[in-house]
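Q: For a teaching session next week I want to show students how multiple molecules come together into a single three-dimensional assembly. I've collected the sequence lines for a complex. Could you give me the predicted structure tokens for the whole thing so I can convert them for display?
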Amino acid sequence: MTTLQFQENPTPTTQRPPRHHWNMVVDIDRCTSCRACVIACEAENNIPINTEDRFTQQRVNQWIRIERYWEGEFPNVKARYIPMLCQHCDNAPCEPVCPVYATYHNNEGLNVQVYNRCVGTRYCANACPYHARNFNYWEPVWPEDFRNYLNPDVTIRSRGIMEKCTFCVQRIRRATRGRQDVADGAFAPACVQACPSDALVFGDILDENSKVAKLSKNERHYMVREVLGTLPSITYLKKVEADAL
Amino acid sequence: MALTRRQFLKWAGATGIGAVVFNGCAAPDAAILVQSPLDIPEDLVTGRDNYYATTTESLGYATEGLLVRVMEGRAKKVEGNPDFPLNTGKHSARAEALLQSAYHPDRIREPLVRVGKGGPWRRESWDSAVTRFTDLMRGADPARTLFITSPTAGQMAAVLQGFAAGRGELHGFEPLSQAPLRAAVKNVFDADVLPTFDIAHARFILNFGADFLGTWLNPVHHARGYGEFRQGTDRRGYLVHIEPRMSLTASNADQWVYNNPGTEGLLALSIAYVLISERRAEAGAANALTGGRGADALSAYAPGAVAAATGVSAEMITKIAHAFAEPARGPALAIGGGIAGAHTNGVFNLTAIYALNQLVGNVNREGGVILNPVFAASRVTASPLRTWKQLVERMNDREIDLVVVRDANFVYGLPAALNAAQALRRVPTVVSFGSFLDETTALADLILPSTTPLEEWGAVVPEPAPGYAVVGFQQPVIRPYTGNISTGDVLLRVARDLNIAALPWETMRDAVRDLARQLQQGNRGSVVAPTLEEFWKRALERGGWWDMGQRLTGAPAPRPLPERADPEQVSDANQFPFALVPFETPGLGAGEGAHLPWLQSLPDAVSTITWQTWVELNPHTAERLGVRQEDVVLIESSTGHVIRAIVYVNRAAPPDVVAVPFGQGHAHYTSYAANRGSNVFDILEPAEERETGALAWGATRVRVTKTRSRQALSKLEGHWDSVQFADSPIIEITRQGQSNGNGTH
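A: Of course. Below is the structure for the complete assembly, covering every listed component.
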């Protein structure tokens, strides 16, 4: 029987020493499931409108989504929410399966998708244990008027292309270009910037004074499907289950 | 033919090739270096972006201060304004969707006039349309003219009031009235404006019916506090939510308690009884609230006596009361709203709930109810259903000749039993300022389509304020995309022609500047400047003005608790066995967000459904009715009106309650909203809250009938299977206990 062996410490794909390693912390105890992050992401990243048929066909394109899980039955029932997005794994299962190297790991910890390399095999979506990858089943279409609000910093992906959360790489580039140091919290991906309850926190884990570095050591921390050895760049903080009255 | 070098140069020099050849010879080394074929898109972007601050209260929703990224004259992204006190840098999905409102393909792009009553539309120039409106106003009889608007406070309200004075009656319309809440706040705190809640510093919140994290008042402001309430300090706050449906806020509670609809006040009085009888309440407040009689005054509300009526066990009532008044926990806060105020006894319910804050002395204190000072500004509040019934009757009796509507879709948002559409058809002339062809605007004879919030001037006085006066300045961050003119500007232009002395301003910008002048002369608050110009510039840059130094202190003297008022049974429970709990969703609200595809595609928090109207049924109830998930059912009330909805079997749904979202069922309102789902207002009983006459939108009972149709639910739930790997440990995603771990943020 063949077993997959994941590397404990994957070799960096480039020899340049990393200046940053972008990470996110998702505090589920703060998340209310308001989904401001979902629409902020769609606006920032030129995601096509998710029409009714995309939902019924289960082909929705959301780079960040809020999953809801049930526990129990009425009246002792709880709904649990968990924001799910690309985990930017340091040992990403989506990367080695791409036959055309359209997805790779950059030296700042980002799992990068190169749209004009992608040929749409969808192997990466198969490999991703987080279902974080979205395939463009259709050519993206907006009414001509809506195209006015499209973000000029973000490429529109055509039919047949795989896409996913980029940690708003366009914002990272703007903030870091030509600068040695970027103050913690000086910029944030669209979802983090919108989040009303500060459930999402973004920063450079290499900066030990950053909020994200401190929070990732919180005793509530865990990583989703950590056992797979994917080494995600997103740390979740558990919801606190308070005692019943 | 042999070509000599001289001949070639001569020939090539006379043609285009020459340019290539000589240029190629002269190419510097740098130019022939291999360039990366992967020029990333941001390298190719031309133009520079700017961020402009503005404020909006649009979409029937809370006020948020915004920063809008504008590039090459087009708005690209909305962000929260970090300076603005209510949302401090964060924003809602609705604020984001203002972009789609501005660039909507179905916007009305020029004035339209009907050829004959009910005839086809004809385009008209702005000059001609405004002249037509001026002539209409000149000939209008003030006794037979109505001006209708969404509730507003600030300079738009000032313009509307100045315009309507002496020319007709001005009425506010909001589909889900806050009148019971206002009345309760007046009863308990003797306050004329809504209070705010210090959620961040409360350690125990007892919430009755208010979906304060999803749709109620200002969810972004509340969520700012909620994050801190949970994880801002080492002592995590505890949230108890009492509601007949699991709403977004209920699903975030530590303890969700189901109660029979309309019994929230009874529960609150029972909690008060426990607190007073066990001497857990502040003695002075207990004395004042009971008229000196103490617990005896409330003995009829002992937990055992109300358990059956409320559906909450005596044990649970006692536990809640004990937790609410546990000093070791820290500040306890009682909040009420939403469905708790939506019954015929809404004011009683909310008055009893808010009085609990006085029993624990938590008014105008950290972690409590924070009363707001009254900021001197013009306000138009909503008229209650009682008044609307009279207005509809007057329209039916042909006592109204002219109706002027601004941002108020009452044809959609009044119960169908009133048949407001038919009444409006009997009005000879209807003028609408709608940017979109909603159900009310579709019946207009003249449309003067307004700009959208990102394109116009305004000064917004948010309610509730954050405990001190706030004025949000709204400025056009883009030019009007369709060349439309804002309602304020049209009214002021007509006012000039009609010589209305009460409106001295030429444009809305002048009106806003006039308010800025008053604030500058006050010489206090967040912007202090020696000249108006400097004040204007700085206030626009910051997105507004606020005065954190002026807050109310001290708590008003408690007044006696209200007498018991039970919810009225408006229809026969045998024929209509289910209590209907209609609810707003964060995207669509009461229907006002349905024209924006981002908001249509925003999954509901609990069901994750989008774009549709569904009915939430308990699994056992569904079984009893013989229906399955995705069956289509008919929901009928005693009004005789029926709507269709798709069954969503919800394990959190109580057995005797059916819940249906507001928002869909538009006949018009753009291609994204029209002919989609059902309008719950259609089946609502036109029942009134006893004291205020507001629509008791939670008082309807219904029956559910199976059909043979089925329809797929457009939901996110079920897109991906949850798989447990056989050899992997289960990771608990919750952590027991009250502590929040090490390190807070």
